[in-house]
Amino acid sequence: MARVIWSANRASPLGENATLELTGDGDLVLREIDGRLVWSSNTSGQSVAGMQITEHGNLVLFDQRNATVWQSFDHPTDVLVPGQSLLQGMKLRANTSTTNWTESKLYMTVLPDGLYAYVGSKPPQLYYKYLVDTNKSRKDPTRVTFTNGSLSIFLQSTQAGKPDKRIALPEAKSTQYIRLEYDGHLRLYEWSGFEWTMVSDVIHMDDVIDVDNCAFPTVCGEYAICTGGQCICPLQTNSSSSYFQPVDERKANLGCAPVTPISCQEMKNHQFLTLTDVYYFDGSIITNAKSRDDCKQACLKNCSCRAVLFRYYHNDSDGECKSVTEVFSLQSIQPEKLHYNSSVYLKVQLPPSASAPTQKRIKVSLGATLAAISSLVLVIIVGIYVRRRRKYQKLDEELDFDILPGMPMRFSFEKLRERTEDFSKKLGEGGFGSVFEGKIGEKRVAVKRLEGARQGKKEFLAEVETIGSIEHINLVKVIGFCAEKSNRLLVYEYMPRGSLDMWIYYRHNNAPLDWCTRCRIILDITKGLCYLHEECRRKIAHLDIKPQNILLDEKFNAKLADFGLSKLIDRDQSKVVTVMRGTPGYLAPEWLTSQITEKVDVYSFGVVLLEIICGRKNIDISQPEESVQLINLLREKAKDNELNDIIDKKSTDMVSHHQEEVIKMLKLAMWCLQNESSRRPSMSMVVKVLEGAVSVENCLDYSFVNANSVISTQDNSSTYSAPLSASILSGPR
């Protein structure tokens, strides 16, 4: 019986008569019968001469010198085969189930000091680690290799077959493979001659007694308690109140869901459901919360906190407090066997009527009644005035929105509240508000709820008018909006890979993006900006180009997001005066004079291009003092002809195989970073450079200057409109 050990199109099953083709240009492509592209190796133009599957099960594309151009071993799914290595930053991602091959939240990755397994959340929650004690001095990435009889971990060792540490496995009697499975287990399978047999469960939970798999994070879904292999929803002791209900009454292992979702608008109605003798596998330690009460209060003050674990040995005033933003499976324990006490406090949402004691409610009611009677006449007079004023304000506001031509679909606030489950699935926060995941019909969407006075009617209308009437493959599509009373919301298409910064800054320990993917992302950004600057009826300056505002779809196609700072520029205007806005680190020098054109976007694009190649932020205070500002480092390396020194060292693909192309791309970034805006290329010129039609200008000025150091020294947030955090329209992922 054959087993699938690697899949290119894991989340996109093919129909009948699909085709796999190695094109004449060297690209391996998978297409549906109608010609729709499902997957590509992105190897066109890399002199691919042929393809083979090695004896180890590695799918390889090679060139005329028989050198590997692309291999499936560099893109693991959920399986390791003998001879295959998982390099530092790579991930094994488990399937959702035995029949659903889409990626689940469970993954295993290699970090500098060992092997780690997580369940994805914000932040990821650790459920297994295998550490290697060593003072690592070599710069080579750590790797874990599946060999006969072990998972071998190489940190410093350079000798083949002599790892720094091993995880022992049964020696092979036949063909073997290791799979990270949907339940979080890492299992070794072997062919017995007529079937595949599980011969070892590699992960052993040492911290908690685990006779029935209860220590694994998704064994009982979300919120459910695992006891003796059985899953039950949390219950309030000595109370008829029920705060959780099964997701499916017939399938207890699917977990539980809150009866009333947590609302950040009703934090005063948050309370804890106490679960004694219950353990949770991970959490972020709250260092200043040593007592039980401090632990609980810290969670109540943070709306994103969904539960806390409090564990202590002898004195409950000196314990360990951990918080989580997403609750997976809980586990019943026996303190007398583990020699410590553990309780979990789940945050629950009380209805407003149940949030205060009866006596207090009576007092408040009596006080309110007396106050109402004593001020009745005043209330009536003021009420009439306010009512009339609001009526006209509302009418005026409604007319403002209704008369706008070409608007996207309009939603009521209640409709969006329903579609986002009362704004419960928060994807992130940005300068203008928070973004929530929602669903309209069968379509996932991202709903941006604009908050505070900083985004008023003017900015909201600018965003809706600007992007509601234009469509481009490299611009995030606005599906709809809400303008009801003081509520301002925008509905966007959902981008499953999240924002570019998560990938180039390695914020979720991802493997480095290969050079072809980076080039495609750069070209996508360029085409999106070119459309805004040169192909619209009026020029549109984005004014806040940065990685956080560049979103990625499932196939890493890039789209520009967050036009909240956009300003339209008439084609007969060469410059327009505006207040300083944007994000420190990406501001062009001319912002200091408040004289701007669309060329400020070209400068910001140059910074983003630099960050994509270097794999770090332009301004990074964690770096040594001389390297804090990447642009300053670029200036010095350019003068010394040492540009290769700043290439992302985590990407062997760029450093070893594409260094010449990368240097050319760095020179393009320098062209975009010229101090004089007139010396920067237009975005259409950048497109031509990327497509090979023209070359980068030779006489470049290396004395790069920007507005960022001035802003950072002033340390005055009022000098720019956008904060450091960006509007996030989707999660990673």
Automatic annotation (TrEMBL):
<dbReference type="Pfam" id="PF01453">
    <property type="entry name" value="B_lectin"/>
</dbReference>
<dbReference type="GO" id="GO:0005524">
    <property type="term" value="F:ATP binding"/>
</dbReference>
<keyword id="KW-0547">Nucleotide-binding</keyword>
<keyword id="KW-0723">Serine/threonine-protein kinase</keyword>
<dbReference type="InterPro" id="IPR008271">
    <property type="entry name" value="Ser/Thr_kinase_AS"/>
</dbReference>
<keyword id="KW-0597">Phosphoprotein</keyword>
<keyword id="KW-0472">Membrane</keyword>
<keyword id="KW-0808">Transferase</keyword>
<keyword id="KW-0067">ATP-binding</keyword>
<dbReference type="GO" id="GO:0051707">
    <property type="term" value="P:response to other organism"/>
</dbReference>
<dbReference type="InterPro" id="IPR001480">
    <property type="entry name" value="Bulb-type_lectin_dom"/>
</dbReference>
<dbReference type="GO" id="GO:0016020">
    <property type="term" value="C:membrane"/>
</dbReference>
<feature type="binding site">
    <location>
        <position position="448"/>
    </location>
    <ligand>
        <name>ATP</name>
    </ligand>
</feature>
<dbReference type="InterPro" id="IPR017441">
    <property type="entry name" value="Protein_kinase_ATP_BS"/>
</dbReference>
<keyword id="KW-1015">Disulfide bond</keyword>
<dbReference type="InterPro" id="IPR024171">
    <property type="entry name" value="SRK-like_kinase"/>
</dbReference>
<dbReference type="GO" id="GO:0106310">
    <property type="term" value="F:protein serine kinase activity"/>
</dbReference>
<feature type="domain" description="Protein kinase">
    <location>
        <begin position="421"/>
        <end position="705"/>
    </location>
</feature>
<keyword id="KW-0675">Receptor</keyword>
<feature type="transmembrane region" description="Helical">
    <location>
        <begin position="364"/>
        <end position="386"/>
    </location>
</feature>
<dbReference type="InterPro" id="IPR011009">
    <property type="entry name" value="Kinase-like_dom_sf"/>
</dbReference>
<comment type="similarity">
    <text>Belongs to the protein kinase superfamily. Ser/Thr protein kinase family.</text>
</comment>
<keyword id="KW-0245">EGF-like domain</keyword>
<keyword id="KW-0812">Transmembrane</keyword>
<keyword id="KW-0325">Glycoprotein</keyword>
<keyword id="KW-1133">Transmembrane helix</keyword>
<protein>
    <recommendedName>
        <fullName>Receptor-like serine/threonine-protein kinase</fullName>
        <ecNumber>2.7.11.1</ecNumber>
    </recommendedName>
</protein>
<feature type="domain" description="Apple">
    <location>
        <begin position="264"/>
        <end position="349"/>
    </location>
</feature>
<dbReference type="GO" id="GO:0004674">
    <property type="term" value="F:protein serine/threonine kinase activity"/>
</dbReference>
<keyword id="KW-0418">Kinase</keyword>
<keyword id="KW-0430">Lectin</keyword>
<dbReference type="GO" id="GO:0030246">
    <property type="term" value="F:carbohydrate binding"/>
</dbReference>
<dbReference type="InterPro" id="IPR000719">
    <property type="entry name" value="Prot_kinase_dom"/>
</dbReference>
<keyword id="KW-0732">Signal</keyword>
<dbReference type="InterPro" id="IPR051343">
    <property type="entry name" value="G-type_lectin_kinases/EP1-like"/>
</dbReference>
<dbReference type="Pfam" id="PF00069">
    <property type="entry name" value="Pkinase"/>
</dbReference>
<feature type="domain" description="Bulb-type lectin">
    <location>
        <begin position="1"/>
        <end position="74"/>
    </location>
</feature>
<dbReference type="InterPro" id="IPR036426">
    <property type="entry name" value="Bulb-type_lectin_dom_sf"/>
</dbReference>
<dbReference type="InterPro" id="IPR003609">
    <property type="entry name" value="Pan_app"/>
</dbReference>
